[in-house]
Amino acid sequence: MRYLALFKKPHINNNSDKNKYMSKIILVTGASSGFGKAIAEKFAAGGWNLILTARRKEKLEAVATNLEKQYGVKTLSLVFDIQKKEDVFEYLGNLPSEWQGVDLLVNNAGLALGRDSFLDANLADWETMIDTNVKGLLYASKAVLPYLIKQEGHIINIGSTAGKEVYKEGNVYCATKHAVDAISKAQRIDLLPYHIKVTVIHPGAGETDFSLVRFKGDASKAATVYAGYTPLKAEDIADTAWYVANVPKHVCINDVVMTCLAQGNSTMIHKD
């Protein structure tokens, strides 16, 4: 499904007297919930100013307002659909001048839809996953790259253990996350002359609204995914993103695969 941009002017929160100047800037896609929200909170706690993007205006602005109040940082909220190429370049390619010093891009926006065999899968679900997980990541990276080059910045792509091993009825979702893995490797090679770091974090099962989205609002079905073991929390991924973003300048952590203790790989989880 396609979404129209909800408004044309970015919403800028700037209520804090603590920020007389710009500190480091992180840009997080899909920041209204889940991993993206947790990453935003972690970096706000560390004093970074934040450009936050998502489709859901009310949720995004609530996140931004809370971070400002709690941590005294500046935020810029941009509401658009990462699937829409024109909107991505309109918003991210034309950031206000005071927000163009982007030090870190976190390509977090992504989703899974359905858990069906190749024969029974919904074509619209496939298209939405490809448009979001692959094309959206490419659009955001391309739009933000001029800023990152000036800053000698860092890209963190959020992949998945599904990008390392294919599991039953994962078909196109797994394919999109394999693409994220390959794109990350290509970015790292192509951007070497510009001193840009590229890291991909591949989480395993993490308890967010991921499964609720995948099963299209079926809460009981989503709950079974995380029953019988302790999955990753969004904060675990945020802690990892914070670590890889703050190693010495000469160090680049290329690839992180992380799971909960109960998960052996993308196909095997031990449940008590």
Characterise the protein shown here:
The protein has one domain (21-258): 3-Layer(aba) Sandwich (Rossmann fold). Helix content is 40%, strand content 15%. It contains 8 helices and 8 strands, in the order ββαβαβαβαβαβαααβ. Strands 1-4-3-2-5-6-7-8 form an 8-stranded mixed sheet, with helices on both faces. Helix 1 crosses helix 8 (234-245), helix 3 runs parallel beside helix 4 and helix 4 (123-151) packs parallel to helix 5 (171-190). Residues 1-9 and 15-21 have low confidence and may be disordered.
List the helices and strands and how they pair.
Blueprint: E1 11-13, E2 25-29, H1 34-45, E3 49-54, H2 57-71, E4 75-79, H3 85-92, E5 102-107, H4 123-151, E6 154-158, H5 171-190, E7 197-203, H6 210-214, H7 219-225, H8 234-245, E8 255-258
Parallel strand pairs: 2-3, 2-5, 3-4, 5-6, 6-7, 7-8
Antiparallel strand pairs: 1-4
